[in-house]
Design goal:
Length: about 100
């Protein structure tokens, strides 16, 4: 099985939303997310689903999962053709705070 190759979606106006998101992150979070994407390309999707670095969200939408301490980053992607995948954008996942019981 061929290893996946990720690219970033570029809009017709040349805007790459994922890069805008990436640049908005702290340096460590940027590095971790890019390292996770590189690791997925290196070891393949099957193992990364087992490691929970990737998750299927819907029929054609998947996410790359990255975490640095309490900072949780996600990058959404879809399969294009063969071993090509396109990352469309990213977001920071917010944790719900546990509320105390009365």
């Amino acid at each position: 099985m061929k290893k996946p190759k990720f690219t970033f979606y570029k809009r017709p106006n040349e805007k790459i939303e994922f890069l805008d998101f990436l640049e908005s992150l702290p340096q460590k979070d940027q590095e971790k997310l890019l390292a996770t994407i590189s690791a997925i390309e290196e070891i393949g999707l099957l193992d990364t689903f087992r490691k929970e670095w990737c998750k299927k969200l819907d029929n054609d939408i998947y996410e790359v999962r990255s975490k640095v301490s309490s900072n949780i980053q996600r990058a959404l992607y879809f399969h294009e053709v063969d071993n090509s995948y396109i990352i469309t954008h990213g977001f920071t996942k917010k944790l719900k705070k546990h509320q105390g019981r009365n």
